[in-house]
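To fix ideas, we close by showing one paired sequence and structure record:
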Amino acid sequence: MIKNVRGWLARLIQVGALTVAAVSATSASAATGTLVRANCSPIAAAADGTMVWHSATAAGWDDVYVGDGNCSGTALLPPHDGHRGPADITKDGRYVLLVTAVGWDRRTEGAAPGKGSQNAIQLYDRQAGKLSTLLPGALKTQRGVIWPKFNADGTKIVWAQMTKTMFEVNFPWGDWELHVADVNLATGTLSNNRAWHDPSGNNGQLESYGWIPRTNRIVFLSNQQPVDTTKDMFRSSQLYSLPDTFSYTTPPTRISPKMAPSWSWQKPVDVFHEFAHFSPNDADTMYTSIGANTVGGDDLFTYDLRTAGSDGLLGQPKRISYFGGDMNLNWGTKAIPGWPAPRYRVVINMAWINGAWVAGVCPDMYCTTTEAWRISLP
C-alpha cells in the first residue's frame, strides 16, 4: 500500500502477521542491518554509487537530495513549496525522475513521495541543469502518481496513476492505472503514452516497480485482482507482471505465490507483498517486502525468478531481514543476531550501492518518518 493508508490499517498488518506466525518457518540469515541515518528515504543509485533520496525539510515537507550511500549530499534543486521526491536515476547518474506535488494539497501528508496526491512527473538533467515536466499533475484524469521508473536503457518509463480518488469510488485507495511511455531524455518529453487497468473491472491500488531484468515485463503490485481476503484485506496485495506491449485489457500474470505452511494441518495462505527491486549484478533475484512472521510491519525477502512455474508463480521466498523479529523464534521477542530489537518496521524503497542495499525503513506504524539502513547480504 502507499504510505498514507498504512496508518489506519497498520493494525491489520500486525494481525495478519500473527495469523501466519507458524507459516514458512525460517532461521536467521547471515545478512545484517546497520542504521545509516534518520530522516533519509533512499530511492535509487547510479552505477557509480551516486544515491538519490528524500528527506523532510525544516519547512515540514519532503525534498530531493543527491549524494552518497550514507545520505550525505546536497539538495538537487532549489526549494519547492510542497512535497517533492526522487523516483529513479539513470545508470550514468545524469537524469533523475521526480515526483512533484503541484496541487492545492501539495504540502499535506497525502502528497508526499510514495503517496502521490496531485503529483506531476518531472525530469532533471543534472549536466544541463534543465528541469522538464513529463506529465502534469492536478488534472481531472491525473489525480496523482507514484513510483515512476526507467527501463534499463532509459528509453521508457512506467508509473502508476490515480484516475479516481477514494471519494469517487468505494475503495480506500481510489482507482489506479498503469502507464508506460517512451521518454526522450534530451528533450524532456514523453510519447506513446498507453494505459492499463485490470480487466477484472475492480477498483484498487496499483504500484509500478519497473522492469524484470532481461525482459520486457513490468512488475507491479495490484489489489484489483480477486484474492481470498476472508481474514484481512491486506492479503489482496500481490505482485504481478505484464508485458510493456500490453493493451488496455491484457490479463496480468500473478507471480507472488501463497506462502507454504510449516505444518500438515495448515493451508498455503496469501500474505502481503509490496515493492520489487533488482540488484545490477543478479538478474535472477527479486527483492520484495512481505508481511509475514513479524511482530508488525514487513521484512525483506528474495524470490528466485528461475523458479517460476508455467503459471508464472514463483517458488517460496527466502527471508533476508529481521527488523520485525521472527514469530517462529521465541514469538519474535528476541533480537536476531545482526538486527535491532524487534518492533514494527516496514522496509520500503532501496538503493544498491557497493554490494549492499541502502533501504528505507519506517520505524512507526504511520510511516511518517523514514530511516536509512544498510542491509549487507551474506
Notes: The longest helix spans residues 6-19. The longest strand covers residues 175-184.
